[in-house]
Amino acid sequence: MSNQLFHTTDVSSFGSSSHHFLAGQLKSRGAYSTEPFSKEESMRVRYKKKVWISISLIFFVLLQGMDRVWGEIFVVSPGEGGIQRAIGEARPGDVIKVRPGRYRESLMLKSGITLEGGGRDQVEITFQDGNTLWGKNIKDVKIIGVSLVAGGNRPFAAVKLEEAQGVTFTDCLIKGGALSGIEVEDSNNVSIDKCVISGNGGAGVLIVDSSNVHLTDNQTEGNEFQGIAIQRSIDIVASGNVILRNDAAGMFIADNSEVVIKKNLILHNRISGIEIENAEGEVTNNTIIENKVAAIRLSDHSRGSIIQNIVASNDFGIVLGLGSRAIFGYNNVYQNRTYNYARTGPQTAKSFPVSEDRSLSSSTDISVDPYFVDERRGDYFLFVDSPLAGRGRNGGHIGAFPPRADTQSIVDIIPEPGLVRENKNAFALVIGISRYREKAIPGIKFASHDAKIMAKYLEKVRGIPRKNIKVLIDEEATKGDFEAYFEEWLPRRVKKDSTVFVYYAGHGTPDPKTQEAFLVPYDGHPDFTRKLYPLKRVYAALNTLSSKEIIVMLDSCFSGAGGRSIIQVGARPMGITLEDPLLAGGKVIVFAAAAGSQVSSDYEKVKHGLFTYFLLKGMGGEAGLSDTNRNGEVSLEELSRYVAVQVSEVAIRDLNREQTPVLRPALEFLGDRSHFPLVHR
Fold first, then answer.
1. How many Å apart are CA 183 and CA 73, to the nearest integer?
2. What is the distance between the alpha carbons of residues 267 and 287, in angstroms, rounded to a whole number?
3. H helical segments located in 348-428
């Protein structure tokens, strides 16, 4: 195929247009007028003519040189040697545009040019017997949107920079080098951005004796040694990169290098995530998971700060070698297979001995499930309510990726059943009302969703058979339905050894005269008590059951002050107690969302009622926080203490109000019943 090289410039008409401009200005100033002038007027006109001629000549000269200011554009089509020929003709400021296709040539760069393809999937430049692209003693060069592939005998590097300054690679694919994909040596002010660097025989990126090199938003994958290797270099920043499935370490920093490593995802590398050997590293906000050997290892008198990283599911978590020292804090170090924290001893003939050292853990470190959005699909953002949100330094997040606002709550991910035993004699009545038949009654945004998720938890986490759970949502929860299921459905099924759970999410209302509490069915109205279902009627129906274990959970309130409560028109909000004569000595235990005049709040951030949200988190185990004695069960006492603390703290911190969940009877009056297991593991 013949080579095609096009040289274009867009400033060819500026010379002639400047003449028109000059003539027009002179004419408008009267330079060609036939009227007689006085001597003074003639001198003034001649002076003006000289000024405008001078200005116009300067303008004309500038326009003639504009093509060098703006640069020229060379357009290259597939052929033999076309790109290098364009580089040879180009001068600083010129752009070489490479049309889609495959090119077989080796490129020697020169200063001041831009080499631009339409994208790394559009332009492939391959060379068989040496570096595909080489730049020595160059400066101010941009390489954009091309694939640079070393083929044939595989040179040491697909791309090599020596003594270069101000070079930028953007949106490139770099592969095929025998020892590295891209080697940066004795260079400074180099940027490698949004590139894929894979399938190289050694390191994906090798930086030697260089400074001020930035690696941003790249993917280094499947290289036969390290993803990124740095030696004898300073002011190196690696940020936002994905470094995975390399045959050695994800990152290797050595020989007095100084590197900032932040916001990278480093996973599935066959040795370690980050190796720092006789060097200094600032390791901040990275997600380092599923690497062989260690997530982070400092050895041979290294120094570093290790802050706000997720270090999970590696063979070892953080390993500190002899003579090395580091500052630790705000890391989530979780379920690393051998040790979370370890030290290495003196090297023997066969290995480095490794021993656990929990003293490396900072008081600000935590160890919890990060709750990634979808780890199986490579989505390592955090759920909006991940336990790592707000747990970093100054209230930031831990790990490479922040909580994502569009995610569902982590409690909507139903826990795996695990070893939960099915309890055929357990029953549940679950009610959630988000909208009411009376349009004047305000809806409750998340009540029906709360009920649906609670039903799934009772089945999957508590072990209640699906057929033993009745769920009433919105229009299915009329007053007649309340009567039918509280007073007929449960009594027909419950036996002496049964356990009964009742959950209600919806409006409550007080009677301003009697201070009696009512549930508001779908067809209810606070102005008419006959349309309401008294709370004492709920207790009475449940106390007639033969079961000894009856737990009622109410995400509602009865103050009439808003939230999940309403009141008669014209009545004032009031505080009423959940104490009831039927509770004294009865079998019913009530766990309610709020006390007295308080409001049961929705928690918009997680799209649940605040009380229900922490009920679900507690039942799910909350990474062991609710199971305080670590016996695999969450008792009524453990759950109530956990929920009360969490709801109270979040209500003040996030909602600027008080909300204190209430247990009736109180724990001190429950005796052995406080140890009743709500969740078996």
1. 28
2. 8
3. none
Q: How confident is the model at residue 74 (pLDDT cuts 50, 70, 90)?
A: very high
**Cα–Cα distance, 114 to 170 (Å, whole number):** 11
pLDDT of residue 6: 40
Q: Which long-range contacts (CB under 8 A, 24 or more apart) does 627-630 make?
A: 627/681
Where residue 317 falls among pLDDT bands split at 50, 70, 90? very high
Distance CA 355, CA 345 (A): 8
DSSP 304-347: EEEES-EEESSSEEEEE-TT-EEEEES-EEE--SSEEEEEE---
Two structure tokens written together for 49: 């003519």
Could you give the C-alpha distances from 637 to 466, 609, 626, 645, in angstroms and in order? Answer: 26, 21, 10, 12
Q: Which two tokens stand for residue 207?
A: 């930086």
Tell me the chain's radius of gyration from C-alpha atoms.
Answer: 37
Strands 73-76 and 5-8: antiparallel
Q: Where are the beta strands (DSSP E) in 154-257?
A: 157-162, 165-170, 173-175, 180-185, 188-193, 196-198, 203-208, 211-216, 219-221, 228-231, 234-239, 242-244, 251-254
Encode 281-314 in three state secondary structure: EEEECCEEECCCCEEEEEECCCEEEEECCEEECC
> Residue 411's closest CA among 639, 620, 644?
620
Name the helix (H) or strand (E) containing 644.
Answer: helix 636-655
d(CA 582, CA 542): 10
Q: What are residue 137's phi and psi, to 5 degrees?
A: 60, 40
pTM assigned to the model: 0.79
Flag whether pLDDT at 61 surpasses 50: no
Strands in 469-473's sheet, in edge-to-edge order, are: 469-473, 426-432, 499-505, 549-555, 588-592, 662-664
Strand partners, 306: 283, 328
For residue 27, give every residue at least 6 positions away whose Cβ sits within 8 Å of its Cβ, in sequence order, or none: none
Largest CA distance in the chain: 126
Contacts of 471 (CB under 8 A, 6+ apart): 430, 431, 432, 451, 452, 455
pLDDT in tens, 395-451: 899 999 999 888 888 899 887 765 567 888 999 999 999 999 998 889 999 999 999
Beta bridge partners of 296: 274, 318
The β-bridge relationship of strands 372-374 and 95-98 is unpaired
Higher pLDDT, 578 or 335: 335
**For residue 28, what pLDDT is reported?**
32
Host H or E run for residue 71: none
